[in-house]
Amino acid sequence: METFLNTEYLDLLTGRQLLVIIHLFGLALGAGAAFVSDFTFVGALKDRTFTRHELNTLELLSKIVWLGLGVLILSGFFIFLGSTDALLDSSKFLAKMTVVAIIAINGLLFKFVHIPKLNRLVDQDVSKLDNPRLKGMFISGGLSGVSWATALILGVLRGVEYSYWQIIGVYGLVAVGAMCGGLMLNWYYTKNQ
Q: How far is Cα of residue 114 from the mean position of the Cα atoms in its chain?
């Protein structure tokens, strides 16, 4: 135990490495809660209704996503301060910042637009609505999953030899595919059965 407490070992957990650990924790927390939220949302609609309990669960998961995103952004800011020039020259870093910005905007949309809509849909049969209000939520869910996965992948990759526009182009194509998949799920869950 005394050997572990030796400063040689503690030096491994100081400075940038400690920030990276905190950063990865924020990413894991946010991404994990976002994925669980997406699956919870789709699973809740298997009976074509949305209960108050299911909405409360989504609201809790949303708070966990925001906590993870906050930890990710704050720790990322301090990592950035330690390597400003190198990171500003990195296409991977710039693409990751774009994706994190999209995650934040999508999260705001979920909190201030989708949650209020879900409150109005509680205990209603969504397949009988004239103008289903879930379409945007399914699109947002598809974008969320792809965005968190992309942030995770970009965070793990060491050397990326692609330009910012190549990375964002691939991300955009996958995101559009996921959002189209969300529209297909919307059609499935809101059609009359």
A: 15
Q: For residue 123, which amino acid is it? A: D
The residue type at 34: A
By the 8 A CB rule, do 91 and 167 touch? yes
Tokens (6 digits) for 54: 């299911």
The CA distances from residue 68 to 52, 98, 140, 183, in Å, are 24, 17, 18, 27
How far is 165 from 39, CA to CA, in rounded Å? Answer: 30
CB-based burial label for 116 (10 Å; 0-12, 13-18, 19+): exposed
The stretches in the chain having pLDDT less than 50 are 1, 4-5, 10
Enumerate residues 6+ apart whose C-beta is below 8 A from 126: 45, 48, 49, 50, 132, 134, 189, 190
**β-pair partners for 50:** 122
pLDDT tens, position by position, 55-108: 999 999 999 999 999 999 999 999 999 889 988 999 999 999 999 999 999 999
